[in-house]
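Data availability excerpt. The first of two example chains:
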Amino acid sequence: MTQANLRDYRLGWVGTGRMGYAMASRLLQNGCDVAVYNRTRAKAEPLTESGAVIVESPAALADRDIVFTMVSGPDDLIEVVAGSKGVLKHYSIRRKVILALLLRLARACADFRGAVP
């Protein structure tokens, strides 16, 4: 298996909280093409100094080769991926398959959170 170079891809990033901001920043510092969405735009804007492009909704990241999400919980994940302005807004068949998988993942995450003291 060959190792992929992320600089060869157009990346999308959703969520620039404490962890997401640091990770997106690292990608930018290493020369990656990154477009970013965050609910609170002001939290993402400093990334433009490193070359990020800020977009208005996750749907605007649909043309990206890879989209990373770093959001706080399963409901947020479902919204940014499959919601009315989600990354998969324009993909009907693929959206259904991914949505089914996403719902299973969200339930598993919620179950895991409930099991952790």
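And the second chain:
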Amino acid sequence: MPAYSHSQLSTYETCPHQYRLAYIEKIKTETEGIEAFMGSRVHDTLEKLYRDLKVTRLNTLEELLSFIIRAGKKIGMEWFRLRKGYDAEITSVWREMYHRLLPAL
């Protein structure tokens, strides 16, 4: 029996045709939605944090914030920064995440 991700099920619920195009025919869209953009930045930043920890280097919060904002700019997501409060929002979210993760590191 195949396993389905939450994203796949949600896509199918929203639009079965979209599900078929994305997951069966594997047609890629040219744009990345806000959710995918943020998810990718979270993944990239956590990957950096743990990769650097392997060599016993704990990134500071400021280094991680700088990394995630640079990563967004690097891939041409300037339009996303136009959203009012982006920098403050991303900083707030990462401060909270960092302090939650820190005891485990």
